[in-house]
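User: My collaborator sent over this chain with a note saying "see what the structure looks like." That's all I know about it. Can you take a look?
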Amino acid sequence: MTDLSIKTNTYDETTERLVAFAERASYETLSAEVVHECKRRVIDTFASALGAFDQTTSVLARNVAARYRTDNPATVWGTNIKTTPEVAAFTNGVMTRLLDISDTYLGKSRGHPSDMNSGILAVAESVRADGKSVINAITLAYDIYCSFCQAIDANSKGWDQPVYGVLGCVIGVGKLLKFPREKMANAIALALAPNMALAQSRRGELSNWKGCAGANASRNAVFAAMLADDGFTGPTAVFEGNGGLWEVMGKHDWPLPTTTHMITQTQLKSLPICYHGQSAVFAALEVRDRVKLNEITEINVDGYKAAHMMMGADASRWAPATRETADHSLPYVVAMALLDGAVTDKSFSDERLRDPAIAGLMAKIKVRHDERFDAIYPEASPSRVSIRTAAGKTHCAEVRYALGHTKNAMSDRQVEYKFNELTAAKLNQNQRENALKVLWNLEQVNDVTDVIRLISL
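Assistant: Without extra context I'll predict from the sequence alone. Here is the result:
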């Protein structure tokens, strides 16, 4: 029998650590809390994806998916389209991200770990994995993604969050496929070396690629795993070698989780906007009833550095021409909250983007960086909205933990409400009830294909 263990000095130290960490991951060691939190995020992922089913970019992605066929396919959610696992990972991942209502992790850097779920679920379906294996793979992927974000700020180096996603996803997929150590090491190298992503995707006027970048990381991760499974090898020192990741980013200490699983530390969203605007919207809603719109003379929105940089430091945020820019604009989402008393998917229609009432209110908004908030971020995501009226009065509200934050968590009932609201256009009541019943008992599922059928045609 061939010895597939990693030989001493064959792979760099970081690769060996990641392979060993993945090897130890086991469903049997997961607590009931971790299993439950994983199921909440799977439900949230399907809700986010089906809620974006009719978005233009979703249609474009499905058109791509329909071109590809294979003997062991995965399903495009909400359809009867069967395609290759890597293309399903991309298409379903695009839908998951488009409404900007999927989960978030905040560390030294930040990102959306549920981007990886489309890849893991696509592979799980293609190999007919059971629910326990899926839960274990997703939990492992979150541990890699979130600990990477916590240890290393790739964004400040000019790299986008898919760098975290491609690595977490390929390890989750490799675990699902029961890769021996040699294949897992090669999958890691084949995922990371060719697939660094530029942070430019989230700067200035945002294109529809903003909602596709994480999905592309999952596609690349699945493809890398397929290559490794068929015997392809990758560079042996992808982290620590000459031209490796640490040479690009600088060497960092990267502790891997030991006593907790990081899926419990990700934030769910109740609003379809960038996470850094969630608290500001809730603050605006809190102060809204105290003022009359026609009496407002000035609005100040104060936030921490990342919120200011992502949602208020570029001129495009005061004149958003795309949905992608608008849901990353503090002036836009705060103005929308004050005008409508809510921020929903309909807030970003072409008609609303051109609404002169919104533009007029946005012109009164200033976004400021409050360095005092930096001291409590990312433990909290604080924002303060202050409104000054013509009478000289100032009305102010501050929110630190938006609904969905781990310190202001959405209840299971609220997660179900989100699922029902976002999937109502695709699934009837009976379908929604059946899907939720099975998803809350995912660990009892023998073949994840049975789950996918419940949210597809």
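A starting point for your reply to your collaborator: Residues 1-9 have pLDDT under 50 and may be disordered.
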